[in-house]
Amino acid sequence: MGKKAAVMKGDGIGPEVVDSMLRVLKECNSQFEIILCEAGSEQWDKNGRKDKSYIPDDTMRILEESDACFKGPTTTIPVPGAPRSVAVTLRQKFELYSNIRPTKTFESLTPGRSLDCVCFREATEGLYSGVETLVTKDAAIAIRKITRHGCDRFLGAAVKWAQRYKMKKMVAITKRNILKQTDGIFWESAQRAVEGTGIELSEIYIDNMAQQMVVAPEQFNGAVLASTNLFMDIISELASGLVGSIGLIYSANMGNDFAMFEAAHGSAPQFAGQDKVNPTATVLSGAWMAEYLGEQDIRDAIFTATEQVINEGKTTTWDIGGSSSTTQMTDAIIFRARQILKK
């Protein structure tokens, strides 16, 4: 039986960039089966906002029968009573506890600045557990849930990543001087995870980490940066700014036996339908999915082709200094990737 991937195009610019990704995979002769399905706030609106989730039951059944999934950018409506985001729902449903964002600068975009690290974010606990309650009509409390089990499996995965890619440093980002109990559990798990591995572990508080990323990002080259949900959400966004554009940042959400791939950016509805947004993050996320499903050569070709197109700078979108459309940049990536695969 061949591998199956459920693909949700999402909202806003989602359908455009996901179509670019699907076209790249098709032109590179990817062999796994792609099953299109719906999810997001736009379909929730069309259905009269009556569903409890942004993910219809039919889509959830397809996801349960697939080997991996791809989520296009989806809008989460910020009003009380609206469903949890598609990403949070799927992370918790499939226990996708590691949100992973490799972050690397491109020579043509940030001359004089070099950053090459990976951001590991715990994705099922912390403040994003969504446990909130009103104490009075004027006061509310959110629960920051941290468990030893959750920390152990997440930090174990971060160490395995470091070992696989021969990375020698891991940085645990906490606020343990204030959050003594919750970040205390996280730090203890980090210490256990690196025992006997030869990986150098350091701890840095979240406020200082933000400063250090701006002042001297090169110190984190070759490191796995690991933290709880909210802290790493912030740091990974900061890292994307240092790279040059959030439109370059690809990501995966991984558990023990399922993975969800997605661009790190949002649905940007103000740009929908204009054929102007950067397809890089979505294309590279799709290439990573191809690797996960057993097509390493296709992943490598797409990554190399994309890097060549960006560093050449002739066919890039406005956010990284060019004037090309989404379609034109996608075409350039396809051309290069097909050349690579023919060799």
Structural overview:
With 343 residues, the protein is α/β, with parallel strands linked by helices. It folds into two domains: 1-100 and 247-343, Isopropylmalate Dehydrogenase (3-Layer(aba) Sandwich), CATH 3.40.718.10; 110-243, Isopropylmalate Dehydrogenase, CATH 3.40.718. Helix content is 40%, strand content 19%. It has eleven helices and twelve strands. The chain has helices spanning 14-27, 41-46, 57-64, 86-93, 148-164, 182-194, 206-215, 229-243, 280-292, 296-312, 326-342, and strands at residues 4-8, 33-37, 68-71, 98-104, 116-122, 132-136, 139-142, 169-174, 200-205, 223-227, 250-254, 259-263. The strands form two sheets. The protein has a ten-stranded mixed β-sheet with strand order 2-1-3-12-11-4-5-10-8-9, with helices on both faces. It has a two-stranded antiparallel ribbon with strand order 6-7. Helix 5 (148-164) packs parallel to helix 6 (182-194). The radius of gyration is 20 Å and the shape is globular. It starts with a strand and ends with a helix.
